[in-house]
Amino acid sequence: MSLTVDLLDPTLYSEGNPHEIWRTMREAGPVHRQVAGTGSEHWAVVGHSVGKEVLHDWKVFTSTRGVLLRPDDNAAPYPGAGKMPVLTDPPRHTDLRRAVAQMFTPRAVEKLGALAREVAGSLLAGLRARGGGDFATDVAMRFPLAVQAQILGIPAEDVPLILDATRRSVDESEHGSFGHHDVMTYFLQALGTERGEAGQNLIDTLLAARAGGLSLSDEEIVLTCDNIVVAASQTVQHAVNGGLLALLDHPAAWQALREGRVGVGTAVDELLRWTAPATHVMRTAVRDTELAGTTIRAGEAVAVWISSANRDAAVFDRPEELVLDRSPNPHLSLGGGMHFCLGAALVRVLMRALLVELSTADTSLALASPPVWHSTWAVNGLRSLPVEVVPA
Ligand code: HEM
User: Fold this and answer.
1) Is 274 in the pocket of ligand 1 (CB under 6 A)?
2) Sign of the C-alpha dihedral computed for residues 173, 177, 181 and 187 taken in this order
3) Neighbour tally for 213: CB within 10 Å
4) What does the pLDDT profile of the chain (392 residues) look like in tens digits?
5) Ligand 1: does its nearest atom lie under 6 Å from the Cβ of 342?
6) Does the CB atom of residue 334 touch ligand 1 within 6 A?
7) Rounded distance between C-alpha atoms, residue 137 and residue 240, angstroms
8) How far is the CA of 236 from the centre of ligand 1 (A)?
């Protein structure tokens, strides 16, 4: 099935996600051929169950050819493939992930809850003291790394440098690879000075895994740090910005949250479903296969459009409505299968903390001027979210 829309046209995303287009596509079928104006081709999976199938079937759908669509050529080799968790298939993926998993268990990250509340509270207090400002740059961008810096092994004085490098690494207009290069150089230097005591921070944990018998090259360690640190600092902001915008657009839902009529935990997952910060993830078929009756050839790119899957009426009741107490909520915003987001528990700790701080204050926020979107198929995020302080 092929619809004429080009999902890689950035202007489609200039005012957020093109949900009307995805609904039309879902109604026509779960799998569509896409040929971008820029030349790259892929199979667009827009339905939830087929999306889940792709994410779980790593034997057929490899991650080693990249996990984000590229406008020119999805089949080109990918730097870092096979050496960092997100770009590696089992069995090596299992080793890389096991080396760091203990740092990100629900139990390990729950300890960051108090710090997350403190950082969120202080950033919001600054915004309120100024009568408002740009929530995206003043709060959402700074918040995640400020909370995670210590466990990632980044001293406070280096946080601005890493924040800038990770921001550049995901900004296509700024030649992302230079940002990645700076993050990796930073961790390569840190590698020379760390002691390798388990549980201290990211690089210590990786070195302890190596000391414990897991063969890990310096390159794998540095690339794994890059994978985790970029994800840790550059994704949560989109969920937080999109989450606040959703609450501003749905005052009754926000009021219910403020009054404790809906739980913060379910609200976080509904805001994740709603915003879907990772708009899609890509895989490449390693052999000919079939998806919902469509033949996929070896070497072809398949993208799971998470933002679309999250609104599939076959799975979600009232999918186009924000239902903060939705439960169960099997959204795909944090992926699925073996590459399921390593930071999932951390995301929930961070978002809960910010939501509580936003919802318990005796003042509230209102939009001061229209938000500005990133206008890309790669992430659903806001560049700017101007807000002003208003009575609660
Ligand atoms: C709201 C924020 C976040 C969203 C929406 C998000 C989304 C995702 C998604 C969709 C994947 C799957 C990628 C794939 O299947 O190819 C993923 C993987 C990953 N995420 Fe997150 N993520 C978030 C925050 C974080 C944080 C805070 C961390 C910090 C530890 C993190 C670390 C990772 C890593 C390392 C992977 C690769 C895991 C693997 O390949 O085994 N993410 N994330």
Assistant:
1) no
2) positive
3) 6
4) 556 899 999 999 999 999 999 999 999 999 999 999 888 999 999 999 999 999 999 999 999 999 999 988 888 888 889 999 999 999 999 999 999 999 999 999 999 999 999 999 999 999 999 999 999 999 999 999 999 999 999 999 999 999 999 999 988 666 667 889 999 999 999 887 766 665 679 999 999 999 999 999 999 999 999 999 999 999 999 999 999 999 999 999 999 999 999 999 999 999 999 999 999 999 999 999 999 999 999 999 999 999 999 999 999 999 999 999 999 999 999 999 999 999 999 999 999 999 999 999 889 999 999 999 999 999 999 999 999 999 98
5) yes
6) yes
7) 12
8) 10
Q: Where are the domains of the chain?
A: 10-391
The terminus-to-terminus CA distance of the chain in angstroms comes to 49
Compute the distance from residue 364 Cα to the ligand 1 centre, in Å: 31
Closest CA to ligand 1's atom 19: 341
Between the CA of residue 363 and those of 28, 126, 266, 351, 352, what are the distances in Å?
A: 46, 13, 23, 19, 19
Indicate whether residue 278 lines ligand 1 (CB < 6 A): yes
Between CA 367 and CA 385 the distance in angstroms is: 7
Nearest CA owner, ligand 1 atom 17: 341
Q: Which of 240, 341, 354 to mutate to test the pocket of ligand 1 (most atoms within 8 A of CB)?
A: 341
Q: Is 227 in the pocket of ligand 1 (CB under 6 A)?
A: yes
Structure tokens belonging to residue 270:
């509904």
The atom number, within ligand 1, closest to the CA of 104 reads 30
* Residue 56, CA atoms < 13 Å, CB-side half-sphere: 8
CATH topology assigned to domain 10-391? Cytochrome p450 (1.10.630)
Which strands make up the sheet holding 363-367, listed edge to edge?
Answer: 132-134, 386-391, 363-367
Ligand 1 atom showing the smallest separation from residue 87 Cα: 40
* 166 within ligand 1 shell (Cβ under 6 A): no
